[in-house]
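hey can u check if this looks right to u? its 214 residues, i copy pasted from the old doc so theres a chance i mangled smth
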Amino acid sequence: MAAEISRRSLLTAAALAGSVAAVAPAASAAAAPRRWTKARSANGWPITERTAWYSIEGSGLRVRLAAGAPAAILVYVARRLHYELDQLSPGDVVGVPASKTVTEDYESNGLSGTAVTFRARAYPLGVTGGFYEAELVVIRDILAELDGVVAWGGDFRRPKEAHFQIAHGPGHPALLLTASRVLDNSGARPAGPRTDGTLSAGSIDAFDPARRSR
């Protein structure tokens, strides 16, 4: 059964994670795959079993993520990819991976449930140019909408276009603010522009000139 996301759960999860400084994505010096053994992922979040499965609305799929703000924000990213890039199929979006093997440090963020991978085989590590120009417009709109809270692997020194991660560590004030905006009025699920200022993934036009001028 997929978990639900509420504003109360956002606050609880933030308190459990603790307060650490934001960590910018950095390229790892090592190129060889290795097992991640640290207690925290590269973006400062604890690697823990406190994760849950969350529904990606409209797709019939679920993704395993860290509870609270990371889940609310990353499910919103996944929903927009589903509605605006291409319909998701089983296995297209992965949160917490089955293996702790990483090649770049930022891949460890999946282990803490604070990153998702979108069609990893189609957009492998170190390869760019996988998305068409129109698809890049959507990705850039998602990043702009979330105001720096989510970072895209396509922008990293050693890129991975399949990778989307929480860009701040636990306790950063932007997390709760952004997560609250992507929850609907019931606080139960990720949601786009509404009269109360929250967001609904299915109702956004990334090609609106007003949005592209941001």
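Strands lie at 34-35, 51-56, 61-66, 93-94, 101-102, 115-118, 150-152, 163-166.
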